[in-house]
Design a protein that fits this description.
Elements (H helix, E strand, L loop, with lengths): L4 H8 L13 H7 L3 H6 L11 H20 L22
């Protein structure tokens, strides 16, 4: 992707790149059709295997530390609508 002409041209013209944090077990969350809150709680749908305990912790750290840190590094004028949204508590996160 970073070698694509459009990407290279955009960066050459001053575009700034911000990389979204990765989550090792994201595929497992997506394949199970779970929300982050469900994955953190270890929800198991019928016919599915349980998450490994460490994966539940990884999801919690990803959501509660990495995601806020990611958005904190983005200049406010890149996401002007975000300033108008009410803050969400940890219990609200899906």
């Amino acid at each position: 992707m970073t070698g694509h002409k459009v990407f290279v041209d955009a960066v050459a013209q001053g575009a700034q790149v911000v990389w979204f944090p990765g989550l090792v077990c994201m595929k497992g969350v997506a394949e199970r059709g779970l929300t982050f809150a469900e994955a953190k709680r270890g929800i198991v749908k019928p016919g599915q295997q349980r998450f490994v305990l460490f994966d539940q912790t990884r999801v919690e750290i990803f959501w509660e530390k990495h995601i806020p840190a990611f958005f904190a590094q983005i200049p406010a004028d890149w996401l002007p609508g975000m300033a108008d949204r009410p803050a969400r508590s940890k219990g609200d996160i899906q």
